[in-house]
Sequence to fold (344 residues):
Amino acid sequence: MRAAVTEGVGSIALLDRADAPAPGPGEVVLAPEAVGICGSDYHFFLGELSEAAGGSRFPRVQGHEVAGRITALGPGCRAELELGQRVAVWPLQACGECYPCRVGRPNACDNFQLIGIHLDGGLQQQLHTGQDQVFPIRAENPAVAAMAEPLSIAVRAVRRAQLRAGERAVVLGAGPIGQCICLVARERGAELLVVDLQDSRLALSASMGADTLVWTGAETVVAAARDWAGPDGPPVVFDATGAPAAVRAMVEIVASAGRAVQVGMSNENVSLRIGSLTEKELDLLGVSCCGAEEFAQAVALVQRSQPTLERMISHEFSLERAPEALEFAIRNPTKVMKVVIRAA
Fold:
């Protein structure tokens, strides 16, 4: 089979590899159809992924946002799984033994394995994995089906925030994760203000019913966001950028006793005035991967929101053009929303 293999920092090649082995008990083989590329893929490719996030271990077939069709089923797989069925892949595998796993938060497992990071992912013609990782999905477009994974991060973020109908929340960053947070929050009945550097990205948020604001500087955005929310400020603010200026703005914007939710990843350091945390008595919440229940919720939301999710897909490439796709996405951040590689 053909596979796009990241061989080292900044190096990816199309190679012939052995076909996937026959599935054993409780295992499946998929033919990946569509694979989304995200910021963590960029960090892996560039050797920038922290050890806590999985590191960059080569060679590796990347791709953790995967939709495909089942081509083989091992014995003992659950009855709902069928040959030829389209599925979305939940990429997280937890150890079940560490502290997060013991307290019911396996999505934050200290020893997790992620398909496309620790294990070979979707940028190949066959993917061998466990039955627990696949969720049947009714989506006509496999590229939309692959959006279940980024949407699952938004489901987790909104759940961590305990966002309620009628509450006002600010989302900093209108990339794919920010747009997915907007979608989940709006469906929950929250009022949203989405902020981004690029005015062109905000049109999609507006179409989901969010108010929008162009980032023109931290001080201006903080004042405008607090004015939008009312005299107390917004009870919830999400940062979907990982940019230090936005993280600081999140802490300044959020209301006292509010929830500041960090979703965007980066290796940057952020300086904060410690008094902002104590004076406001903030809940400062981080978001990692999602659990199985949240992934199932994301799959259901994909099925209800296909036209909106289709608008997030800005570029598509074939598997043979995977090296070009990854480099294009990294070099053109202002042009790209979601790059999808069609593996079939």
Summary: Residues 148-161 form the longest helix (14 residues). The CA atoms of residues 162 and 259 lie 9 Å apart.
